[in-house]
Design goal:
The complex is a heterodimer of chains A (261) and B (255). By secondary structure, chain A is of the alpha/beta class. Chain A contains 8 helices and 9 strands. Helices cover 36% and strands 23% of the residues of chain A. In chain A, the strands form 2 sheets. Chain A has a 6-stranded mixed sheet, sandwiched between helices. A 3-stranded antiparallel sheet of chain A has the order 2-1-4, with no helix packed on it. Chain B starts with a helix and ends in a 7-residue tail after the last helix. Classes of the chains: A alpha/beta (261), B mainly alpha (255).
Chain lengths: 261, 255
Amino acid sequence: MSTVLDLPAEIGTHVTIRGLDKSFNGAVLYDNFNLDIPKGKIVSIFGPNGCGKSTLINMVSGLMPIDSGEVLFDGKTLDKTTIGYVFQNYRDALFPWMSSWDNIAYPLKRSGMSKEKVKARVDELVTLFEIKFNLNLYPYELSGGQMQTVSIMRALAPNPEILFLDEPFSALDFEMTLFIRAKLQEANLSTGVTMMIVSHDLEDAVFLADRILLLTRRPTRIAEYLTFDMAKPRSPESVSEAEFIKTKALALEIFQREMRA
Amino acid sequence: MNNKEHLQKLLPLIGPIALLLLWSLILEAKWVKPILLPPPGATLAYMADSFMSGAIFSDLFATIKRTFYAFAIATVLGVPLGIILGSNEKIYRSVEFLIDFFRSTPSSALIPLFMLIFGITDINKIAIAAFAAVLVILFNSAYGVMNAKKTRVNAAKTMGIPTRYIFKDVLLMESLPQTFVGLRMGVSMALVIVIVAEMFIGSENGLGHRIIDAQQVFNVKEMYSSILVTGALGYGLNLLFLISEKRIVHWGGKA
């Protein structure tokens, strides 16, 4: 089994995943899997159905136990690391008994932050996300896009080092997808929070990505780990530019190759 | 349009009016002997009179008091126990059979047993009603916790919230809608058992006592009016719980 000691990471790496093993009922999903996530960058994860994209971020974020292996954040373990997680199903992730404002403030309050500091931090997020709806409403009184915005704000509230997003756009309409995509990009550029995004939409995956992680079928390996350094911030029009189209086509080609494999 | 809306609001009255009409019709057509069924008007008048004269209050309050005590005991025991059982599936599975067995046993079948233990006392009536209610309440609270949305618990985990706070802030709140269902069913169950106990465990007061006494001396007007009062009490309790449930568990069914 490899560790970061015998398989060192490049300078600028945030998360090191080494020798990761995971099986379900005897079926091997990950076997001695190694991956580096660069600090302050956005990594999009893309791959065939059932290859374990969500399982990967769930293991890294500690929601799912790993069979064996090592996951370190700047050399620290998970319990010494502040993380954020945005779920696909925002309706089930928000706390309906609290107002939207209290949802965002909840992790801050529980960490023992003073009332004034909590308010200041929530206000900061309100400005960053240009919130125009009433945060005193309960989550179930909001639209889907507003709910997902609130859950992203809640995940970002404690200033996490890394934000995990599991299909954050899949339940949103196109307009909200554009808005949230832009806001995630802004949050990443302004705070330097590292992001790992699972997406089933190739355009969303490429739009935000600094690196695109393409996975194979089970047992899951890295098919390609593309670098996409198109200038940021990217705009909705960026998706029509040659550079974008070229990378998207390349990713699609690799994806299809893996589908056939 | 407006007229239509007004008419819509009157729809719930149709059932009761139809029942009163049917009641009158049965008497008119002489399907039932008048000695077994008094006319609806006379029964309602008798009921109004028993309130005006205050004759019914001692029985009504005795029943309310017993139901309240039984329900209070059942809640104080049932909700915390249910939550503890629900958050530990292994413990729940090991006592699940007992809970389901006694929940399925009509509590009235246990009245003789409780008489052996508590004698023919008020405590007996309260104890058996509390026993019936506690199982329903416990079962629902436990299921409320067990069926808590996994995503909410996971969300709290990723925020680094300590386990005891996940329990208090998430699991407890998640179980509330189901707990309220249990409380509502529990209070109805307590009332049923209190009424039965008042009928058959030597009692000097209570609506159950009033009903069976009236039946023994063929005072049918008093019997029917007491039945109606008992029904109204049960309905009122249910309504009270529905309204407080809507207030407290405002997210129920919406999230």
